[in-house]
Design brief:
Layout lengths: L2 H6 L3 E7 L3 E8 L4 E8 L3 E3 L2 E3 L2 H23 L8 E6 L5 E3 L18 H11 L8 H10 L10 E3 L1 H10 L3 E3 H4 L5 E2 L4 E2 L1 H10 L9 H4 L2 E3 L10 H7 L15 E2 H8 L7 E6 L3 E6 L12 E4 L5 E7 L4 H16 L6 H12 L10 E5 L12 E5 L8 H12 L1 H13 L6 E5 L9 H9 L3 E4 L5 H15 L6 H9 L5 E4 L3 H16 L1 H10 L3
Parallel strand pairs: 1-6, 6-13, 9-12, 14-20, 20-21
Antiparallel strand pairs: 1-2, 2-3, 4-5, 7-8, 10-11, 14-15, 15-17, 16-17, 18-19, 21-22
Helix pairs in contact: 3-4, 10-16, 11-12, 12-13, 15-18
């Protein structure tokens, strides 16, 4: 069946993912082939010391993304998009979206980037004996309780961004287990919130005499393949301003960008892993068993099917790197050169390969926001060198590429060296890998293992949630997600694998020695630069 026939017959799946800098929609056929893509670019705002997106901005962005995709379908296939086999919504994990019983937002949306929950995260980690990162939804909720914010007593629903959009489209207060694992600890045996920890939390807040308990306000947890509601008439009107999109479309459980990243890289089975590298960078390793110890640097989450998964999540990835490339673009314009930003990234990234293995003694910290892994709760950007440093353009770019992997490397070292976690393959996806053989090569040096980037990697998590939507409507009886991906999707796809080079590994480790030593300087910078 060709693309036009798939669209006309509704043999398609649509995934929409709300990322940090882009909302992306991907329409696929049931074999996973991309038929059309829609895009809406946006940026978070820092308002009253909170990283956020306005509710109107969220709504307009989703509509704009769908409009872009719908127009591409009309242009490529000369048909109107009316029937879709299944839809899935994904978004940045964690954070805090709070609604009252009328469905009105009653507190600013707080994204994963916020690190204003230290007291709550520490208290809950101690209570549960389970690492609760600062960005988790339950940490945000408890911090709001500790701060005695008035809206808490009026809470009716607390969710992530994906859960919120899914509710807008279906009226269902549900969430995929992978995204739920960034809200509250999950019991992988039941694929639900850990009941013992739920009871501990309810007892902890009993003295405040709220009318609700945790399960009353958190979404119901579902696993991949389960039915998660239908697109309502109101949901269809919300998504498609033309009124052509038909309601009644089944929807899969909403997921977080970690779960869709795992899906998009076929990394949902034990002993597989992936690294998603963009505005934030996180490494996910699917475990054969739970970790022996609790680490503040490591999140314990799950795959969309509920397998335990260890995550090394760095808040800061390529934001500072992107800003430097923007500066070079500004310089080129000043000199009268017409530049294409994509070509500029490619040339600067590729030129970094000629730099010294250890970046010539240069060091930088791209902490655009606070960094949970290194326990630095405020953003500070720094570039450091000594008179003896080999200050070249290649080393400068290589330094910023290396440092974008620096914090996540600290978490991976815990898994590989302390916990002896074994992994058969690492898949890379995200903006860092768009320039061939650069980010992929540096990641291989960082993890000391082969790294594969699929030809589909540029479609990212939006393609991943589209695959989850396709799986929910087209899975065979007793067919597991990992089997569906391995046999029916990825068997026909191609990619490139890069082996770690000994010189690169040695150079990266030398850079990391400086990176660790310089963290005290970075912490001091918060005190010195507190203007």
């Amino acid at each position: 069946m060709n693309g036009k026939d798939s669209i006309l017959n509704g043999k398609t799946a649509l995934g929409i993912e709300l990322g940090s800098t882009r909302i992306k929609g991907v329409l696929i056929d049931l074999s996973g082939q991309v038929l059309a893509v829609g895009i809406h670019d946006w940026e978070n705002s820092f308002i009253d010391n909170i990283w956020t997106y306005g509710i109107d901005e969220i709504h307009a962005g989703v509509r704009s993304c769908y409009r872009s995709l719908r127009e591409e379908v009309e242009k490529k296939y000369d048909v109107q998009l009316q029937k879709i086999g299944s839809i899935g919504i994904s978004a940045m994990m964690h954070g805090y979206m709070a609604l009252d019983e009328e469905g009105k937002q009653i507190a600013p949306f707080q994204t994963w980037r916020n690190t204003n929950t230290q007291k709550a995260a520490d208290a809950l980690t101690d209570l549960f004996q389970f690492n609760i990162p600062l960005r988790w939804s339950v940490a945000h909720l408890y911090q709001r309780i500790l701060d005695q914010e008035e809206h808490v007593k009026r809470l009716s629903y607390v969710s992530t961004l994906s859960g919120y959009i899914h509710w807008k489209l279906t009226g269902e207060k549900v969430i995929g287990v992978g995204d739920a694992a960034g809200m509250f600890p999950i019991d992988s045996d039941t694929c639900d919130y850990d009941e013992k920890m739920v009871q501990k939390f309810n007892y902890l807040i009993e003295k405040y005499e709220y009318s609700w308990k945790l399960r009353d306000i958190f979404p119901k947890v579902l696993v991949a393949g389960e039915h998660a509601g239908f697109l309502t008439k109101e949901g269809a009107a919300f998504l498609d301003e033309t009124g052509n999109l038909e309601p009644g479309i089944p929807m899969c459980p909403p997921e977080g960008d970690a779960g869709t990243g795992m899906t998009a890289t076929n990394s949902v089975a034990p002993r597989t892993g992936n690294v998603s590298a963009g505005t934030s960078i996180f490494a996910m390793i699917v475990l054969e068993k739970q970790l022996r110890n609790v680490y503040r640097e490591i999140d314990m989450v799950t795959t969309p099917s509920g397998f335990p998964c260890a995550m090394s999540h760095a808040n800061n990835g390529t934001s500072d790197l992107n800003a430097w490339v923007g500066l070079f673009e500004e310089f080129a314009k000043l000199m009268g050169y017409k530049t294409n930003i994509g070509e500029l990234f490619t040339k600067l990234y590729t030129n970094s390969l000629s730099g010294d293995p250890d970046c010539g003694g240069l060091l930088s910290y791209g902490y655009f926001s606070g960094e949970n892994i290194t326990m630095i709760n405020e953003g500070r950007l720094a570039f450091l060198r000594t008179p003896e440093s080999h200050f070249t353009l290649a080393n400068f770019m290589k330094t910023h590429l290396y440092t974008s992997l620096g914090a996540v490397k600290l978490g991976l070292d815990i898994l590989m060296e302390d916990e002896k976690v074994e992994v058969d393959r690492i898949m890379g996806h995200g903006g860092l890998f768009k320039t061939k053989n650069v980010g992929q090569r540096y990641l291989a040096a960082a993890v000391g293992a082969p790294v594969t980037v699929m030809d589909t990697a540029s479609e990212g998590g939006a393609w991943g949630i589209a695959l989850l939507a396709a799986y929910s409507m087209d899975k065979r009886e007793n067919e597991k997600l990992e089997d569906y991906l391995e046999n029916r999707v990825f068997g026909n796809l191609t990619g490139k694998t890069v082996q770690p080079c000994e010189e690169d590994k040695k150079g990266f480790n030398l850079f990391m020695t400086r990176y660790k030593a310089g963290l005290e300087i970075e912490k001091k910078a918060i005190e010195v630069m507190d203007w």
